[in-house]
Write a structure and sequence with these properties.
- By secondary structure, this protein is mostly helical.
- It folds into two domains: about 30-175; about 185-290, Orthogonal Bundle (Cytochrome Bc1 Complex, Chain D, domain 2).
- It is built from twelve helices and four strands; from the N terminus they run αααββααααααββααα.
- The protein has helices at about 1-20, 40-50, 50-55, 100-110, 125, 130-140, 165-175, 185-200, 205, 245-255, 265-275, 280-290, and strands at about 75, 80-85, 225, 230-235.
- The strands form two sheets. A two-stranded antiparallel ribbon has the order 1-2.
- The protein is globular and about 75 Å long.
Length: about 300
């Protein structure tokens, strides 16, 4: 009996050690950003392309308060309700104590400065494709914004989905940093892919997800149900979106569709972000969307 107990105890210990090793946070090398200097003017462009304010501003913010990134917006899902944190430059409640390296770890690896996995509601599965220079520029711009002394609220996520260490397993299964659309792309289409697949993270809303919440890359941008809400995110592949490139550019600029409808809900915030970008960026996104493989 003693040998049997010893055997199972050994197996359990080995299993726990293997789990701990497989699920360990994967962080960037300390010199990953060596030699990079942030430019806050360029960082503002990254800020709007990434839609940072859309998620991290306080609920109902308008005008100048959009740049007060106090957090607090709620995002319901099948796994619980996630609440956007404060990412203002406040050193206590925000990211004022972070380095550019910390921000790069969060955005490209999904790891906090404390070494914990972030829940993938934070779209690091898309931001992982972002260039380090763009992240350093974004960091420089974020530090120019108002510091807000509002504590971040805890997520309302129950067991077992609140076990952050288990997200390491999820990352092993689904964290794919490769481009979705590949092949012979023009410079404009390549720019549009970078904006759409990395910074603007279009796929996070417009791509169907599997039972574990991972994007189904074989149905990229094919739409899907709105988590915790009513209706669906639309299919924006050429299979359903028959707009011209000019129509898409106009929609991303003004919010108006070719049928004289207008963007609503969270998409209205996306349009506001896109309107801050130079026209060539919106043109690049339109060119990319016409290149995406049709998907039902």
């Amino acid at each position: 009996m003693r040998r049997l107990v010893t055997f199972f105890a050994t197996v359990a210990a080995v299993g726990m050690a293997a789990f701990w090793f497989v699920t360990r946070p994967d962080t960037l090398p300390r010199d990953a950003l060596a030699g990079l200097v942030g430019d806050e003017a360029r960082g503002e462009r990254i800020f709007w392309a990434g839609g940072c304010a859309s998620c991290h501003m306080a609920p109902g913010s308008e005008g100048a308060r959009v740049l007060e990134l106090a957090g607090g917006q709620k995002f319901p899902s099948p796994f619980g309700t996630f609440i956007a944190p404060n990412i203002s430059p406040d050193p206590v409640h925000g990211i004022g104590g972070w380095s550019a390296h910390d921000l790069a770890n969060a955005m490209t690896r999904g790891v906090s400065p404390a070494g914990q996995h972030y829940f993938p509601v934070f779209p690091y599965t898309s931001f992982a494709r972002a260039r380090f220079q763009d992240i350093v520029d974004l960091y420089a711009f974020l530090l120019t914004l108002p510091a807000v002394e509002t504590p971040s609220l805890p997520h309302d996520v129950g067991f077992p989905f609140d076990i952050r260490r288990a997200i390491g397993v999820w990352k092993r299964l689904f964290f794919n940093k490769n481009w979705v659309v590949s092949g012979d792309l023009s410079p404009t289409e390549t720019r549009g892919r970078y904006l759409s697949e990395a910074l603007a993270h279009c796929g996070e809303c417009h791509t169907p997800r599997n039972i574990l919440g991972a994007m189904e890359r074989d149905r990229w941008l094919a739409g899907g149900p709105i988590p915790g809400g009513k209706g669906n995110f639309p299919n924006i592949t050429p299979a359903k979106l028959d707009w011209s490139e000019a129509d898409i550019v106009e929609y991303l600029t003004s919010g108006f569709t070719p049928d004289y409808d207008s963007a609503g809900g969270h998409m209205a915030l996306v349009v506001d972000n896109m309107a801050h970008l130079p026209p060539e960026d919106r043109t690049a996104i339109a060119a990319y969307l016409k290149k995406v493989p049709p998907a039902e």
